[in-house]
Amino acid sequence: MTFGSILFENGGDQESRTAPECLGDLNLDQVIDAIIAGKDEYKLRPIFYTPLQTPAAIAYRQEIMRDLEDKALFEGIGRFAQAMRTRHEYMGLAERLGNLYQRERWFLEAVETYCQAVAWLNEALMGADLRARGLLGLREYVQHYAGSEALQALAADTQAVKAALRTVRYCLAIKENTIKVRRYEGEADYSAEVEETFVRFKEGTPRSYLATFASAPEMNHVEYQILNYVALLFPEPFRVLDTFCERNRNYLDAVIGRCERELQFYIAVLEYMAIFRRRGLPVCYPQMVADEQEIFCRSGYDMALAYKLCLQEQPVICNDFHLAGKERIFLVSGPNQGGKTTFARSFGQMHYLARLGCPVAGDAAQLYLCDAIYTHFESQEDITNLRGKLQDDLVRIHRILHLATPRSIIIANEIFSSTTLQDAVLLGERIMREIVSRGLLCVCVTFMDELAGLSDTIVSMVSSVDPEQPQVRTYQIVRRPPDGLAYAISIAEKHRLTYADLKERLKP
After folding, report:
1. Considering the entire predicted model, what is its pTM?
2. Phi, psi of 441 (to 5 degrees)
3. Which end of the chain has a smaller Cβ tally under 10 Å, C or N?
4. Quick one: 40 exposed, middle or buried, by C-beta within 10 A (0-12, 13-18, 19+)?
5. What are the tens digits of pLDDT across the range 264-303?
């Protein structure tokens, strides 16, 4: 029996090893880092670098995510995942340690743990009310594999070898610098009597003078020699161990190994989303549309920012958006530090994560299945770049327009801020008309209010302030015409930077 993947509906697609350029601008690199923290051994990054291309592929993952939100199933899968993680640790010891028999002993432990992990996975899947096609297929495979002669024989062999090793009982005779190893022949254990005899000589806080082997798996050279002599005294149990290790060198089932990693992807994502849910923030599975660009989101937010605020127990501001009919472009204006860039990032994050089949920030959402997301955010000045900032902006936006297709999303943040307002408006109009003519979905954060009236495809969004205290930002981005107000005076007053304040402060 065969089974493909719980990540890709039609089997294992080629994963990308290259991070999309938009990740840094959208702070998605921070989101991904937080999701996969502590799971480096599973090499999950390529999954996050490989967005899906069809609504069906996205629905396939969403179904699995929904099923795994069942607490009992999630805990059962987690039990399997932890056992497999322990198996990795044991296999690492089996490969790293110097003594042959020590390596084989940890290999035996790894195999026993693997058999138990498969049993737990089978139990978790069989006890769940599954609806996801991927998990139903996996359940059928695991049930067949768990009951197969091959796995049953592997589990039985493991226990037989362990039983044989339990027959190994030996004694150490220690005299000066000499250690003799011989078979145990029923001699009494005088450890307790010796301890009782010498207890009278202890003063103050009792101390233990019993010699023990270190708890770490590594052994010293004396212990190595002892183990080798024990193997000579008991050749049959160690021969059985040798044969077991050689015969079962390739014990790991390929499907189980692949699904272990793929399940870690789902576990990591759901654990990350649980952080927001615990704080009462909405998380939803978006409806994806590929043939239309009517989109919306209720109560969306920037996950990278929200993650930090949740850890600091600070409030998170949510915003809505929608495009309908001919509308294609959000033009976001308003005062500085009012949440405009955060709004643009949240828009990009939602569309990117949705293409991975992940939940997104929001109470409900319908998002566009784009083929790529291109971003133009202010970049750090590079002294090796001989172009001026304006020229650099033009080169970057030209490249984006060259690469973008009718199914692409463009997110631009404060372009042409390095030139005069007149030149910026002129250049901005040309860029915006090009975007409009192509019918591209776009978010443009800008100080150029004039661009809002270029086309009926453009929707104006404005960051708002407290009407009673204009210096206070609400971080709400509302759908309304631009008002051209930057509220710079209120900021200057707050920091005592008005002309009158400066005149007073600089008075000789």
Report:
1. 0.86
2. -80, 130
3. C
4. exposed
5. 999 999 999 999 999 999 999 999 998 877 899 999 999 9
